[in-house]
Amino acid sequence: MVRYNVTPANSEKVAYARGAYIRVHFKNTRETAAAIKGKSLLGAIKFLEDVKAHKRAVPFTRYNGGVGRTAQVNQVKGVTQGRWPVKSCEVLLNLLNNAKANATTKGLDVEKTSVEHIQINYAPELRRRTYRAHGRIGPYVSQQIHAELMVQEADAEVEKATDKPLVQKRKSKLQIAKKRTAAVRKAITAA
């Protein structure tokens, strides 16, 4: 079995998907992956389909030099720059659909699953050559990535206890001293 970079607490409620040596830009895919992390599985699929249709934009938070501004990224606080990386969305949609199929095969409820872990790594670049003026040769490099993601089914909600907590809040030395002096004053005035 392939080793993933995260180990879940309960491996029975988890489904994985991964891709290696995918020919797509790292920076665009990293920003797209950061946008869907933590979303529900179906919500992430809907978000990526909306990005492909230019209805929503992927907010660029780290690799945002020279990225234009758009009002479609207003859902993320403090971010104004965004793009619509279609090829990255297609790659991540394929991974999400694969994880969805794996979750269904494992018997998980797809409605309750969410993207808990997604990671994009650089892969070795593909090197070609281009011919320049005066007989020189220049690099002609294209990027590749490795991608992995984990979807996890949410646990059943547990109701919060309504009775008093067993552990009392610890008091500071000043609070203890004030309580002691108040008790002494009360004893003096009562006597």
List the helices and strands and how they pair.
Blueprint (H helix, E strand, L loop, with lengths): L13 E9 L3 H11 L4 H12 L5 E2 L22 E2 L2 H21 L6 E10 L3 E6 L5 E6 L2 E9 L19 H18 L1
Antiparallel strand pairs: 1-7, 2-3, 4-7, 5-6
Q: What is the arithmetic mean of pLDDT?
A: 93
Query: Residue ranges: pLDDT <50 for 5 or more in a row?
Result: none
Tell me the series of helices and strands, N- to C-terminal. EHHEEHEEEEH
Overall body shape: elongated
Portion of residues in beta strands equals 15-25%
Rg, rounded, reads 27 Å
Quaternary organization? single chain
> What spatial order of strands do you see in the largest sheet?
1-7-4
Q: How would a crystallographer describe the biggest sheet?
A: 3 strands, antiparallel
Structural class assignment = alpha+beta
Q: What is the terminal separation in angstroms?
A: 79 Å
Determine the number of helices (DSSP H or I, runs of at least 4 residues). 4
Helix content: 25-40%
Number of strands: 7
Question: Can you offer a commentary on this structure?
Answer:
This protein has 191 residues and is α+β, with helices and mostly antiparallel strands. It is 32% helix and 23% strand. It contains four helices and seven strands; from the N terminus they run βααββαββββα. The chain has a three-stranded antiparallel β-sheet with strand order 1-7-4. The longest helix has 21 residues, at 86-106. It is elongated.
Key terms for this structure?
191 residues; alpha+beta; three-stranded antiparallel beta sheet; two-stranded antiparallel sheet
